[in-house]
Write a structure and sequence with these properties.
Strand 1 (about 40-50) and strand 2 form a beta hairpin. Helix 2 packs parallel to helix 4 and helix 3 (about 65-85) runs antiparallel to helix 4. Strands 1-2-3 form a three-stranded antiparallel sheet. It is built from five helices and three strands, in the order ααββαααβ. The chain is rod-shaped and about 75 Å long. The chain has helices at about 10-15, 20-40, 65-85, 90-120, 125-130; strands at about 40-50, 55-65, 135-140. Helix content is about 60%, strand content about 15%. The chain is an alpha+beta fold.
Length: about 140
């Protein structure tokens, strides 16, 4: 009688050996989420003189963090854990956790840089015409 070779999934003890790395990944993800929230807080304001010679229009714009970035970070973490649980070798688990660790700092840093640069480079004239991005609070007051 011959025994058939059956592929078995990675045992819980194999994934369990990576618990410290997973906890470290979670802590670093939370740190980058916090830093993203801090780095994407900005405000600017001023007054514009209308071309028609009327009263000046004053504005205040405040950049806020986008919840979509935090959602993507959480999704990266959950998908990485799911894929690590299905991995068949320690090399795969290490690679998955390493890629997730990289994504957890690249996503918020890129989102923060793009958000701040677009906020600082766009003019209030575009915002007055209704082109305000979702993560910018824009208020107009008469001068």
């Amino acid at each position: 009688m011959t025994a058939a070779t059956v592929a078995t999934p990675v045992s819980a003890s194999l994934v369990g050996a990576y618990v410290p790395e997973i906890i470290s990944l979670a802590k670093r993800g939370l740190l980058w989420a916090f830093l993203y929230g801090v780095l994407t807080l900005a405000s600017r304001g001023g007054c514009l003189d209308p071309a028609s010679g009327g009263d000046p229009v004053c504005y205040t714009a405040t950049l806020r963090p986008s919840p979509l970035t935090w959602f993507v970070m959480a999704l990266v973490f959950v998908v990485a854990l799911s894929r690590a649980a299905k991995a068949t070798s320690t090399a795969q688990i290490s690679r998955i956790l390493s890629l997730a660790a990289t994504a957890l700092w690249v996503v918020p840093l890129l989102a923060a840089v793009l958000g701040v640069v677009s906020f600082m480079s766009s003019g209030p004239e575009a915002w007055l015409d209704g082109g305000v991005p979702v993560n910018i609070d824009f208020q107009i007051t008469p001068g």
